[in-house]
Amino acid sequence: MELVAFDLDGTLTDRDVFREFIVRIRPPMQRLAALADVGRYGLGLMDNAALKQSILRRWFRSGAERERTVEEAVAAAATSAFPEVIAWLRGYQRDGYPVVVATGSPRFLAQPVLERLGLEQLPLLATEASWDGDELSFRSCHGAAKLERLREAYPDTELGLVVSDSEVDRPAMAAARAWVMVSGGQRGGAEGSFPGAQP
Fold first, then answer.
1. Edge-to-edge strand order for the sheet containing 124-131?
2. How confident is the model over 40-82, as pLDDT tens digits?
3. Residue 63: its pLDDT value, please?
4. I need a surface site. Which of 7, 138, 143, 199 has the fewest CB within 10 A?
5. What's the confidence (pLDDT) of residue 199?
């Protein structure tokens, strides 16, 4: 059976867990530095990978109250879940389709969100970020990198359906037999044909 891929932030949940993380970074001066990075990203001076690496490198090196920051961000994202979209995802599971959640958010934030949504058994492709004490190890799962990660993880499975809220997922959408854009938990634009994709 073909692979069904759902985005996380803005698709399964209303709130983006990485944004929720940024506004909770401690100490406050580090939060301001992260928000300055967001401003540079908004002006096109940084790409998504550079934005996340800059924020995470600083946070891993000197962030305060890390567990609390992560917990608060995860709670904020998980409480904004879209039950209709989660039910739609579960329907593909029941029908035997391989289902994966693919997100640009870091795994250390995305995995606990899935756990709170009761989706911890699902495979998760996420941005990988870890700190060894001196260096940040980073691998993106955003934009074209998401399609690359899907193909790498499922080399022998056709991409049947991609569900997302963002144009940034166009590379994966273009490679799939069908795609659906969601907004506010509702299905919007769609292209292609796949069982259960139409409202």
1. 136-139, 124-131, 99-106, 3-6, 159-164, 178-183, 186-192
2. 999 999 999 999 999 999 999 988 899 999 999 999 999 999 9
3. 83
4. 199
5. 61
Distance of CA 92 to the CA centre of its chain: 19
Does the pLDDT at position 163 exceed 70?
yes
CB 99 within 8 A of CB 4: yes
* 156 vs 167: CA distance, rounded Å: 26
Encode 97-152 in three state secondary structure. Answer: CCEEEEEEEEHHHHHHHHHHCCCCCCCEEEEEEEECCCCEEEECCCCHHHHHHHHH
Residue 184 CB contacts under 8 Å (≥ 6 apart), including other chains = 14, 82
Cis peptide before 123 (omega within 30 of 0): no
Question: Span 129-153, mean pLDDT?
Answer: 96
- What percent of the chain clears pLDDT 90, i.e. is strictly above it? 94
Longest C-alpha distance within the chain, in Å? Answer: 50
Q: Give the span between the Cα atoms of 170 and 181, in whole angstroms.
A: 10
pTM, to two decimals: 0.95
Residue 177 has a CB neighbour count (10 Å cut-off) of 16
